[in-house]
């Protein structure tokens, strides 16, 4: 058996703030192969910080520590900033929540995608442009020629997110971390974007980490789900066994959503047991 | 039959001139009875929030009429209007003054409307939304998202309105906090006989809180239906059905188009 794509053992991320130390991630361990892994939790659960630590995008006032943090056998904790930068954007990439903030507002779509490509590949401008066009087609953008000339403010949310995905996948990465990739999108657009992501991941045999607050969505998309609470993984589930969840937090999360197929008044609310956060 | 609390006929809202002209709302009509809850559903850009803003006078009305208990609303809206109609906004991080304490936030509408015994009203308003008296002198940054939304609801209710306009009141909140706020809104409605006009993109939230709903798309009403029909899945319009399918989560089968 080959080594897993990502190995995380006992990962902790802490931030030193003026009013004390915040431990955002506390002892998280998991491995990822070429599969779809979901990380679910509410705000402040440490799910995004886990993804950021993996890419080396933790803010400057944060400290990352782990027994092991490896990508394809490369020890990320020992890697220099230069080596991390060579990996990031080329072999491991990240799609963020809102295309309005994560695309450069003063560059056209073409400039941004070409820049991303040429930062990691020796390619002429024309080659890069050809690759960008092909990539925009594979995220199902009609008239890619026209879209290439547009600025981010001229794109709708769903288009912006597809451009973002195109830019992140153009270097053919092995790992994609998608942090709430569809939360800023309308429900009908959300399905389309997820299907594109799903097809690309399957086609290219990538590893995907989907970070989201939406348990149902993650379960319908991923193979495995990690549920995080207060910086820890409280439960790991097979996505199709979501309703066998044992941890009261996971069960509470499933139960507290209003549903169309069940009318319950009042909604069950989550009783947070302080022991979960220990 | 008595006049509905809120009657909107052929409402039109436009922004910009010439090349930048946008018709955000094009001929929307709806009725909301006393004590009733109506949902306004649609995707971004459908004009649902603009309808709410037009009711409160925050968006320019280009045509049509808005009547409150049979009386056409005046421009600018009078004091009596705001005593009857109040609004809760989407983002509790943006809608509360960051340098006002909860006490100041709740005292302001009372002062504007010259309500006697503000002191008792503030204490009562906090209790109604489930916040203890210890929250009274805190600043918004010392509160969680759910607590802030409770303050925003308390501010809306402190004048004892009859109609509350809710603009995505839970979409900035975590799922477990959303459940608490939805339960609170239901309790308050029962207790004070309130009418809600709820704007949301989440069909399940709307079906939970409202009996009837209006589906909007590109500034127009595409369908008027009931929460009951939504639950049974018997909706007429293809667009509503597409939203309904999409809201059930991701499926690998190729797309149901947006119609």
Please provide a written account of the structure.
The complex is a heterodimer of chains A (278) and B (259). Chain A is an alpha/beta fold and 278 residues long. Helix content of chain A is 35%, strand content 24%. Chain A has helices spanning 47-55, 81-87, 99-102, 109-120, 125-138, 144-148, 157-169, 187-204, 215-221, 248-255; strands at 6-17, 20-32, 36-40, 62-65, 68-71, 74-75, 92-95, 175-179, 207-212, 224-229, 232-238. The mean pLDDT of chain A is 91. With 259 residues, chain B is α/β, with parallel strands linked by helices. Chain A binds chain B through residues 42-43, 157, 186-192, 194-195, 198, 213-217, 219-221, 252-253, 256-261, 263, 265-270, and chain B through 43-44, 145, 174-176, 178-180, 182-183, 186-187, 201, 203-205, 207-208, 230-231, 242-244, 246-252, 254-256, 258.
- Main β-sheet description of chain B: 6 strands, mixed
Helix content of chain A: 25-40%
Shape of chain B: globular
What's the number of helices of chain B? 9
From the structure above, extract its key features.
heterodimer; A: about 280 residues; alpha/beta; six-stranded mixed sheet; five-stranded antiparallel sheet; 10 helices; about 35% helix; B: about 260 residues; four-stranded antiparallel sheet; 9 helices; 10 strands; globular; disordered C terminus
């Amino acid at each position: 058996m080959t080594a897993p794509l990502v190995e995380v053992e006992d990962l902790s991320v802490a931030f030193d703030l003026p009013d004390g130390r915040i431990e955002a991630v506390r002892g998280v361990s998991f491995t990822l192969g070429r599969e779809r892994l979901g990380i679910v939790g509410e705000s402040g659960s440490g799910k995004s910080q886990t993804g950021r630590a993996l890419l080396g995008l933790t803010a400057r006032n944060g400290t990352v520590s782990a027994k092991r943090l490896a990508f394809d056998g490369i020890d990320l904790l020992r890697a220099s900033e230069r080596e991390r930068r060579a990996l990031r954007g080329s072999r491991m990439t990240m799609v963020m929540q809102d295309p309005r903030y994560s695309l450069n507002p003063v560059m056209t779509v073409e400039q941004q995608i070409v820049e991303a490509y040429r930062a990691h590949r020796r390619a002429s401008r024309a080659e890069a442009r050809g690759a960008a066009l092909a990539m925009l087609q594979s995220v199902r953008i009609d008239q890619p020629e026209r879209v290439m000339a547009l600025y981010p403010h001229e794109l709708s949310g769903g288009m912006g997110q597809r451009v973002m995905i195109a830019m992140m996948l153009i270097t053919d990465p092995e790992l994609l971390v998608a942090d709430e990739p569809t939360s800023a999108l309308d429900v009908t657009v959300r399905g389309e974007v997820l299907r594109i992501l799903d097809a690309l991941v399957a086609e290219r045999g990538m590893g995907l980490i989907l970070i989201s607050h939406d348990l149902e969505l993650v379960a319908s998309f991923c193979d495995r789900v990690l549920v995080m609470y207060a910086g820890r993984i409280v439960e790991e589930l097979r996505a199709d066994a979501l309703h066998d969840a044992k941890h009261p937090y996971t069960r509470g999360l499933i139960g507290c959503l209003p549903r169309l197929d069940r009318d319950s008044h009042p909604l069950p609310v989550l009783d947070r047991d302080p022991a979960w956060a220990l | 039959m008595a006049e509905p609390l809120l009657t909107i006929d052929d409402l039109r809202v436009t922004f910009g001139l010439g090349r930048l002209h946008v018709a955000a709302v094009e001929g929307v009509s709806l009725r909301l009875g006393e004590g009733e809850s109506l949902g306004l559903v649609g995707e971004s850009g459908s004009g649902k929030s603009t309808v709410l803003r037009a009711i409160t006078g925050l968006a320019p009305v280009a045509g049509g009429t808005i009547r409150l208990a049979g009386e056409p609303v005046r421009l600018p809206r009078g004091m009596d209007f705001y005593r009857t109609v109040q609004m809760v906004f989407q983002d509790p991080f943006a809608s509360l003054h960051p340098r006002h304490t909860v006490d100041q936030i709740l005292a302001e509408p009372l002062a504007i409307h010259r309500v006697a015994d503000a002191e008792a009203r503030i204490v009562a308003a906090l209790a109604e939304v489930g916040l203890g008296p210890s929250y009274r002198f805190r600043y918004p940054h010392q509160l969680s998202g759910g607590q802030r939304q409770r303050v925003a609801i308390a501010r809306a209710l402190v004048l004892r309105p009859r109609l509350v306009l809710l603009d995505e009141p839970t979409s900035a909140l975590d799922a477990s906090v959303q459940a608490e706020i939805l339960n609170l809104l239901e309790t308050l409605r029962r207790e004070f006989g309130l009418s809600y006009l709820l704007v949301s993109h989440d069909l399940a939230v709307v079906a939970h809180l409202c009996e009837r709903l209006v589906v909007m798309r590109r500034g127009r009403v595409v369908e008027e239906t009931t929460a009951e029909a939504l639950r049974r899945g018997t909706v007429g319009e293809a667009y509503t059905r597409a939203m309904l399918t999409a809201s059930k989560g991701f499926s690998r089968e190729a797309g149901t188009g947006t119609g």
